[in-house]
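User: Can you predict the 3D structure for this chain?
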Amino acid sequence: MKRLGVDVGGTFTDLIYVDDEAGTVLIHKLASTAEDPSQGTIQGIKELTERAGEKPEALDQVFHGTTIATNIVIEHNGAKVGMLTTEGYRDILHIARHKKPKNFSNYQDLPWQAFPLVRRRYRLPVPERILGNGEVLVELDEDKVREQTLRLKEMGVEAVAVCFLFSFLNDAHEKRAAEIVREEFPEAFLSVSSEVLPQYREYERFSTVALNAFIGPKVASYIRRLEEELRALQVGTGLHLMTSASGVVTAEGAIERPVNLLMSGPVAGVVGGITVGKQVGYDSVITLDVGGTSADIGLAQNGALRMRHLLDTRAGPYQAMIPMVDVDTIGAGGGSIAYVDGGGIFRSGPRSAGAEPGPAAYDRGGTEPTVTDAMVNLGWLQPDAFLGGAMALRKDLAHSAFSDVAETLGMSVEEASMGAVRIASSLMVQSIEENSVRKGYDPRDFALVAEGGAGPLFAANIAAEVGTPAVVVPPYPGVTAAMGLLATDAVYEYVATTYQRVSELDADALRERFEELEEQARVQLEEDGIPAERCVINRVADCRYLGQGYELRVDCPSGDIDSAWVEKLSADFHDSHEREYSRRFDDSDIEIPNIRVRGIGLMPDLETPEVEQGGASPEDGLRHEGEAWFLVDGELSALSTRYYARDGLKAGNRVEGPAIISQLDSTTVVPPAFTAEIDRFGSIVITLDEAAAQQVSGSAGQRKDDDVSS
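Assistant: Here is the predicted structure, written as structure tokens:
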């Protein structure tokens, strides 16, 4: 099977080609085309398949990760959206939860009001009312629905959201309203809450459905255009896109519910990190994916992805109540700009130089100092080895960019450069601690998987500070997210609101609802062409203690819903609540407000070829020796450093720090007192020599064991 994964980032588009039968793995990177990301995607597919000696039509699978949906929300450039809603409730989107980002400030914009998804003039009410038990109080006024739909059409809206009260209990009114919209306004993108999110919590439901409409037209246009271009290349396979729930969906599924693509960009990197970690022997991993603009931090204990609480799932400032893997994104990356603020404080990021003009060393017109320029000044990035030698860096421009900052701070260019790197590193350390220590996980139980073009540059010193015992650098760290796409299964999630209590459980009603959702999942997987033997159906329940206003996701046993089923669910929820909040209440009743079904279509396993075996000596990969700057005992020093080409290293090779390992898609830094070993799949495993740990105390602030709380 020939598979291709393409991950479009803000700076680079990353591609990976895998031929399972031939054991071939090829990677490719090219600059992203911001105006139309599909152009860079198609160009990359052409170039990579040509390198593989194949034509695009030979591809059996194409997987795509994109940030287009997220970017639309962040840049506030989505569609003009109209909404049909229950009479008297047109302002739900404006009022929201009556919370402010800053509780005590009278001078602030509320982002969902400053940049509304649906302006009030386009939120049109219609007479109808369904009660909280699903009964109809006021029948739907179909004539009014038709009238308001025609008004929206005259106003020039591009998408229509239909959101009625309690439609998750009785969707008859929404279904009929949707039929009328399709009759009178067929060209509009239609987003119906009972189809997109049949779940309680009216504001979050309205916001999610409005988001679906806001991004829908542009996302649908992009996907259809990309599909047309793939057909022009005679690619016979359908396109699969990554979702925020850690699965892939077909192009048609993504067009119907584009909201599921929101915040999906970082998820493939976590999936790829889990895959690489397991190969090396680490089931529990923390992933550090650092690109040009941002750093994404994820955590997976025993290979299991951690999902965000549904009240914490957001896209920009907007509530998006969709299943979302818990990945923290911060504004720290290779393009982060270093500067001295008005108060004289040295800072790095979150503002980034991006792909254009990029760091000063790129020689594309950029003049501001970035973290990439800092690493050029420190000797970590070699001008003639960047992107495998395909792009030369200008060290003189990097030095000039830092001159003003260094002069302002009264230090050398090298000291200022190290300062910029340490500031960016500290932001990543803080994020890792927030996602591990503060959530009850001990980093010492995890390996740190370094991904992205810049992740392996930072990882060793970060690991020394947070306490992870090893750093794993995948064979192709810069395209690990693209590789993660190939290791991802097709996943669809269906939800229904139930309002059940464990003490008064109606087992028959609960079973019927599960079976309804399971049938939806089976039908969708069948439509995707996935054979029955590769389909898996999982049950999930949203559980909370009686009286709580938030839920935790708990995996449910399959089979009959009997006393043993209830006992297992209750025990798992108590354990989950204790792990999340350090408290459990075994005598309290448990509510099940929602149930979920995940339909999973298992994709073929990704076979990673083993690399050539060698001895302990890495001399075959040595390219030259030179000087690079490192902190030793808190002092910045120029040390004799060995520079290696990664494609010259073999399994079993041991590299003693300080050393720099260069390859096409990334560069790995092995600081003093660290040792790197190549495993049989070509991953670099970096460990800290405990006896020499104090030598790097200045570079990472080595943390003692008793400083890490579990």
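Residues 267-333+424-482 form a domain with the Nucleotidyltransferase; domain 5 fold (CATH 3.30.420.40). Residues 695-710 have pLDDT under 50 and may be disordered.
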